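Lab notebook, bench 4. Still working through the backlog of constructs that have no structural model yet. Next entry is a single chain of 142 residues. Request: give me the structure tokens for it.
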Amino acid sequence: TLQLKNFFDNSIFYNLIGGITQPILNRGLNKARLKTTEAQQQIAFYTFQQSLLVGSQEVSNALYNFQTASEKEVTRAKQIASLTKAVDYTKELLRYSSATNYTDVLTSEQSLLNAQLNSINDRLQKLQSVVNLYRALGGGWK
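Model written out:
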């Protein structure tokens, strides 16, 4: 009994009993911490998922803009080729026929010039879409 009495007198016993009973007494607090941690984990998951979706959408939009700008550039090149022929034909008509005047030549040249200016803008849009695609894929500058 002496050894058992010494055992109960030591602080080890009280620490042991306290360590065993503390989770029982703090049961509600531990459950609340668990639910809070699970909720934070869900928030982190949904935030990550949202980031993936937004990133995918940015890449998709950048690819679409690049494709559209490329198609527009090809179409504009065809338009410029056609307008160049129109200017040449109008000049030929002016030289060999009296059916046209110099105003028609100037009008066709103005149309060609506008198409060339629009082609420059199309090229700029294409280059901007490449930059946007690069940034959407994670590239950037400081």
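Notes after review: Helices lie at 2-9, 11-25, 27-96, 102-136. Residues 102 and 112 are 15 Å apart (CA to CA). Flag for follow-up if needed.
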